[in-house]
Design goal:
alpha+beta, seven-stranded mixed sheet, six-stranded mixed sheet, 30 helices, about 40% helix, about 20% strand, binds zinc ion
Length: about 950
């Protein structure tokens, strides 16, 4: 393959003027491990065996249709239909489908779900335990029902209207309101202007059944449907079952309506849309330059893979520049990014998208500045050092992905196959992809990337769309069309100078500390870890696993946290983690550090909670030493002051905090927080006035104080590290940490829970009327044990099931309902919590709150559905088996064992199995008995 010819094809593909050139190029081979077939009636299927984790599978059905297929009198019905798929079908009447899934430990909303977008509708049953063949049969039966067996009963339609109306309310925000009313202008003369999937509420509330029925019959046809099964299944068997079952569905009529790509007309003059809304938090502007999307038929060409790689490389380097420039004190924007992909909603049209969040009152300048950067990259290209870093990052990400190839989860495969079915995205095997990229990435010279970047031209007005969302308020000055177009014009007139890439060519640590040693090593057989005692008194827990072959996790937990500081440090405490993260490390500023870590997959953070200080790190096995160095630098107060970076953080915080309370959800969250903490100023939400109390030097001193004595810390390292090299690294970077032979300073009890019965019902005026309720109960009398912890989890999930059934399905009073119970331990108390949360229909708020409270009281009184308890136990056992495959699980269990001598692992299954409905009633009764009850309800004014 000649490079020049290849590059020509790549460039043509990117700008959407694909020619025959790409077709001559080699094709991407489809992964042979996936069985793909097509039935006579047109239905496509994908089946793949994957045994990580064992006995689990995913069942998907994807449809190549969505809201764009609706007629004017059907707006919202594609999405409505998706809801009806869970409300009665040939083999699962009423809500039986949900109930059956619950019985095998598959939860609605978590494992059982669906989405409808403008041109696709996808349903899934995930994390299915394939322990019995009958389960596989039933899941295929559900897919069959979705494909062709929905009942669409009148009574169920009536109940679902309210649920969807509440989904609309929940999703309605300032941005959604503006986007919806601006779409006709953004898509002149196109159906895309009028097809938001949520639809029109007057249609949702009033449509007659035949309108829904006709959409279903017209579009849900085997030739538009793809079935995907991935997991621990027998591929031949599943294929046979699919053939037998789905061949029964009739082939579409010869004159059946075809799915056609809806065109998006070009525009010769720029389209400028400026809008405002009272609840919009930040002002922003986006410039999109439309171009044709790569046709599906061209995506199997090798050129497509390369084009995507080069495009992502170029835009990635441009975004790094934009991030670096944002730290300059006089930069007029807070944040900016450039991407290239689908133009808003339409798959038939792509766009280069430039998004800018300006500093206050600087929208035109900000837009001009970002435009200049896009031009600079397009005309003058990137530097070799920028490109070298980008290549190094790509290679290390590839290596990381490849090293874990035997432990990929089903979901990773399914998503690829869904995209292959819907949009012909390539699905090479990881082996082929890896081999190809490992050859191509180092071989492509910088000129190729620069040549490609040139195609992202912003010199012409044609096909340009400018969109600006603003906060509406008295006295505000809004951007104008002349102003925004003037900024673009000014940017085009600017004389460009090449970008200078400042890099620091020195190692992360110039000089290594004097090594300490391991003085003792003890084995723990229960959890399979080693506990090392180091010469400086620090303890390190080591557990080697290959659960994720590309992961090593380090966590250091030290005594003493924010509770050691008084109210005067409230702002410093609140921003501690963010300021530390925005700072530099060692000899490197924040930006220099990012550059210095190119090609490494390693990171670390320092953070502070009320009672603890934590250092957390993660890396690939290869980059453990880099992670250890980062941890060492944090633990030795080598945080480098980076005023510019922290100034940018503060400016961003200011914009966010200033307008936070414009959103009704934030108003509710603040009221809830204040009421739940008895209005303790320590726990008050941050406000913009608090920012002036942030003292950078003070935060750096606090970081130094918290890490001064390494002996106050215990480190846990878990994952796929190399056992032969980990000990010398521990001696080098952890045993060398300064420590004192002191009893670590512990925190103080600053909890300020509400006491007794507390009610805070209030009204709030919003653009779209919203209401939210939270009920909460707690007790400090239940000891922290495995059994109580399991009782809590079961109770919360049973309650969630009751809410789903009574509030959503029966009363149609809400779209989302949530209940949760937990048992926590702090240094000072054990606490059991029961929480109920529901954003609900304002007219039905009384009903919803009544059910929320009554359901809890019922359980306390012994009224509980034993069947629900059984289902929750089923789910917990399945989930536990999955947890065993996560490093995080082992970290948590080892922690509990070491800190409190509690074994939450060995008897887990036995304890779950022994739970009876009466145990759950007893738990809720004990929580309620304490008499602590909180109610916070927001209603529209
Ligand atoms: Zn929905």
């Amino acid at each position: 393959m000649k490079l020049r010819k290849l590059m020509m094809a790549v460039v043509l593909m990117i700008i959407g003027s694909m020619t025959a050139v790409a077709q001559e190029m080699p094709q991407i081979p489809v992964d042979p491990a996936v069985r793909i077939g097509k039935l006579d009636n047109g239905l496509t299927y994908y089946i793949r065996h994957n045994a990580w984790p064992e006995q689990r599978a995913e069942f998907y059905i994807a449809q190549k249709v969505g809201s764009i297929q609706e007629n004017d009198d059907q707006r919202g019905l594609a999405h409505f239909l998706e809801h009806m798929a869970f409300n009665g079908s040939k083999h699962f009447k009423g809500n039986e489908l949900l109930r059956w899934c619950e019985s095998i430990g598959v939860k609605f909303g978590t494992d059982l779900n669906a989405y409808t977008s403008i041109d696709q509708t996808v349903y899934n049953i995930s994390n299915v335990p394939t322990t019995r063949e009958g389960i596989i049969d039933s899941c295929l039966m559900i897919l069959w029902d979705w494909a062709d067996g929905l009942l669409l009963e009148q009574e169920e339609i009536e109940k679902e209207r309210g649920v969807i109306h509440e989904e609309w309310r929940l999703r309605t925000s300032a941005q959604m309101r503006m986007l919806e009313r601006d779409l006709p202008k953004l898509y002149p003369d196109s159906k895309y202007g009028h097809r938001m999937p949520i639809g029109l509420m007057e249609i949702i509330d009033n449509f007659e059944r035949p309108f829904l029925q006709s959409y279903y019959e017209k579009w849900y046809r085997p030739d538009n449907q793809g079935i995907i099964v991935v997991g621990d299944v027998d591929v031949d068997q599943v294929e046979q079952k699919i053939k037998t079952m789905f061949s029964q569905i009739a082939a579409p009529a010869a004159d059946a309506a075809q799915v056609v790509m809806e065109p998006v007309p070009d525009n010769a003059e720029p389209i400028v849309v400026i809008d405002k809304d009272k609840e919009q938090k930040i002002n922003m502007v986006e410039v999109m330059v439309k171009h044709d999307a790569v046709p599906d038929s061209m995506k199997s060409s090798m050129v497509y893979l390369l084009a995507n790689y080069l495009k992502n490389t170029a835009l990635g380097m441009l975004n790094s520049r934009l991030g670096e420039i944002a730290q300059e004190p006089d930069c007029p924007y807070l944040q900016a990014s450039v991407g290239d992909g689908m133009y808003l909603l339409s798959r038939s049209k792509d766009a280069l998208e430039i998004a800018v969040v300006p500093k206050d009152g600087k929208m035109n300048e900000a837009l001009q500045r970002v435009f200049v950067e896009v031009r600079r990259a397009a005309e003058l290209g990137f530097t070799q050092t920028e490109y070298d870093r980008s290549k190094a990052n790509t290679i290390s990400a590839l290596d990381k992905q490849y090293s874990n190839k035997d432990k990929r989860f089903n979901a990773q495969f399914v998503n690829q196959y869904v995209q292959h079915f819907l949009a012909n995205e390539p699905i090479p095997s990881l082996d082929d992809y890896y081999q190809l990229m490992k050859q191509v990435v180092p071989a492509l010279p910088l000129e190729n990337v620069n040549q490609l970047m040139k195609e992202f031209s912003v010199e012409k007005d044609s096909n340009m769309v400018v969109l600006s969302f603003n906060q509406e308020k008295d006295g505000a000055v809004y951007p104008t069309e002349e102003g925004l177009l003037g900024a673009i014009k000014a940017a085009r007139a600017e004389k460009l100078q090449a970008f200078v890439d400042n890099v620091k060519n020195e190692p992360l640590m110039a000089k290594l500390p004097k090594k300490g040693s391991i003085v003792k090593e003890e084995k723990n057989d229960l959890f399979g870890y080693s506990e090392l005692t180091l010469s400086n008194g620090v303890k390190v827990v080591l557990k080697q696993t290959d659960l994720k072959k590309d992961q090593v996790l380090l966590s250091g937990e030290g005594w003493g946290g924010a509770s050691l500081y008084g109210l005067g440090d409230r702002a410093n405490i609140a921003l501690f983690d963010d300021v530390v993260e925005a700072s530099g490390l060692g000899n490197f500023s924040h930006t220099e550090l990012i550059k210095a870590l190119a090609g490494k997959v390693a990171g670390a953070t320092l953070s502070m909670s009320t009672q603890r200080t934590n250092v957390n790190g993660s890396s690939t096995p290869k980059d453990v030493e880099t992670m250890m160095q980062l941890v060492y630098l944090y633990m030795t107060a080598n945080i480098k002051k980076d005023q510019q970076s922290v100034d940018q953080l503060m400016q961003t915080m200011e914009v966010q905090l200033k307008n936070r309370l414009l959103q009704p959800e934030a108003v509710f969250a603040d009221s809830l927080n204040a009421t739940a903490t008895s209005h303790n100023p320590r726990f008050k939400s941050m406000e913009v006035e608090d920012l002036k109390n942030v003292d950078y030097d003070r935060i750096l001193r606090m970081a130094k104080e918290r890490t001064a004595n390494a002996a106050a810390f215990t480190f846990t390292i878990i994952g796929n590290y190399d056992d032969a090299t980990i000990r010398p690294l521990i001696e080098q970077y952890i045993a060398s940490l300064p420590s004192q032979d002191l009893i670590p300073e512990k925190g103080c009890d600053v909890a300020s829970d509400y006491q007794g019965k507390v009610v805070n019902d209030f009204k709030h005026k919003a653009e779209t009327p919203k209401s939210i309720a939270v009920l909460h109960w707690y007790t400090k009398k239940l000891p922290y044990t495995l059994r109580n912890s399991i009782r809590a989890h079961v109770a919360g999930q049973v309650l969630q099931m009751v809410y789903l059934k009574e509030i959503r399905e029966e009363a149609s009073a809400a779209y989302t309902v949530m209940a949760q119970a937990t048992l926590n331990r702090s240094d000072f108390a054990d606490e059991a919590n029961l929480l109920a949360y529901c954003p609900m229909k304002p007219e039905k708020a009384d009903t919803a709150v009544l059910i929320m409270r009554r359901a809890v009281q019922d359980i306390a009184a012994g009224k509980i559905d034993a069947d629900m308890v059984t289902k929750v136990k089923e789910y917990m056992l399945k989930d536990h088996a999955d947890q065993l495959k996560q490093n995080g699980y082992w970290q948590g269990r080892i922690n509990a064992w070491r800190k409190w001598g509690l074994d939450f692992h060995t008897d887990y299954e036995k304890t779950v199995q022994a739970i009876t409905p009466a145990c759950i009633c007893g738990f809720v009764r004990e929580v309620l008995k304490a008499g602590n009850e909180l109610e916070v309800v927001m209603l529209p004014e």
